[in-house]
């Protein structure tokens, strides 16, 4: 029998290609001879009116082919970019134009677009453009935005793009009546994705076919395709979008279209030459996207056991200068904040505010790290107030295993009910306590104190909505060679799709793993798809691939039953060969693929078997009613609502008494993503997420001055952790509570590692120092300042 691959740590098939330099990224695309290169003039001011743009110094430069400003845009291109996810609460949504029209609202906003023979010429030409600005006061930071003494957009009162409230019960009344009450004020600063590969786009226009081919580093090739077709006035069937290898996404590449994804194909069509744009690192800092920045106020009422009776949360979310991605991030914060707990009565209110800074879109975790930070810091504060063990307070509030499915009575980011599908939070907590040595830590802390060292322990719990809709699809095709080609429309940025998806197909179809080839992100192969984000790939595409493989298997068995003159029930597929159980009669899938396609002409020895005088009964239809030629299957998966993965992290940290340096000594993770496709891949996702979480907790912040200038817009100044700052040997244990919502029983894992890290590290530092930690990230200088304030 074929060895089952589901749940096995199969080695990644992608690695050999990447490690040997065989990756092919957008900047590697050779779109054809005569490819031109583009550069963008970007605003040096955070807020200014454009009085005049003089491009006369560019027009006669040898090697410059075109320069575009807003006045050169026509039709839909002259309109603002779309609000991708509208929402009734987004009453004052605003998006930028592909090129700034009358006003710029953050440093880095695109103003002019130059196309030249090479990038050097294009950059030189950009420097020749003269722009006359009327500089306006900038709005930087949540406090300034809330004060509303000046506005980002004149027609947006109070800088408030949206205000939203959800309630379950009467939280203020429950808090007022509770035996105990607390209030907390918390803050998390901005950070950013920072993938190794920035954004990039290449376009080629075929005037004879009237067809556009676009290569772009995106998380939604079908989304880019639809946007480009709409904005350039093309039939969507005449636009092909191909996403080659992507050097990291983490959320920043889910926005579509970026201005360059419209301007590059516009120029390629106008000039009749391929055009390429590759973003440089400073451009990525000042013109892509950030996330995280929130200020939170929490009021909570609880009983003597720490059980929540009422929770009232208000927070302010900095969404930057525009809102192309709607309210997804703050909605996730407001709903995922609850984690694995029953909150009693709950009210959450947020305002999403404009500032003259880079736009905010999802960054790995997408609002969940902020929500987890709010809830877990609250749990720690309750435990401190009552003098109780922090794990016991959490356990008192857990949703119990018998209570699933558990409906919180709220609306999640997908417009569906916030209903948890499965989980066992008490079991996860017990695993975590053993993994980190929770009950033994007191003795360890005393020993370290005798050696003059200060250590603390912290934990945090979270629930992560994964696998949001609306759908994904897949196409599975068995070649006449017996090889199996799998296409799914979502894109890949390092999630091991080529491995995990091949495991699913190999198991379901009964073929060798090495015979399965997976293609993603190519609209020519799968034109209907949504994208890769929100830990949805395994749930959505994995389920669609499973269903498509099952369809293919069913067809193969029907064909084989006819060819072998056997009952379908007596057949099995092992290593790509269909056989009759208990006999030596068999037929390879490749041969069935030949037979599935009735031919008039023979092209080779194999195809002779499918010609009209060789196959089937003379009176039978060559292609039966309801069938199609070819051994293949296509299917789609569309969920009722999201699946909800969960996890718990704990860490032991050491704080230096002299330098206030913070070192993570141990880090432990218990994670539940339902049935595991490949535990090695899941653990890799967790490791990467924890590394990003450590960056967000201890290093990464976007440092704006009051004029809206980003002061650390380079890797010289924007701190990210090296491997030496990531804890060695992250300890991981798995819990598997299958989801009932999809055929594989899986839940997502992509963002799990990053979500609770700031909350965990804050709790551990607080335990070590005895000082409340209310803002993240925290640096040694921040901790030193807190110590001085505490002493005084």
UniProtKB/TrEMBL annotation:
Keyword Metal-binding: no
Keywords, ordered alphabetically: Molybdenum, Oxidoreductase
Lineage: superkingdom: Bacteria
Enzyme class: oxidoreductase
GO molecular function: anaerobic carbon-monoxide dehydrogenase activity
Domain named Aldehyde oxidase/xanthine dehydrogenase a/b hammerhead: residues: 20-137
InterPro entries: Ald_Oxase/Xan_DH_a/b, Ald_Oxase/Xan_DH_a/b_sf, Ald_Oxase/xanthine_DH-like, AldOxase/xan_DH_MoCoBD1, AldOxase/xan_DH_MoCoBD2, AldOxase/xan_DH_Mopterin-bd_sf
Enzyme Commission numbers on file: 1.2.7.4
Protein name: Carbon-monoxide dehydrogenase large subunit
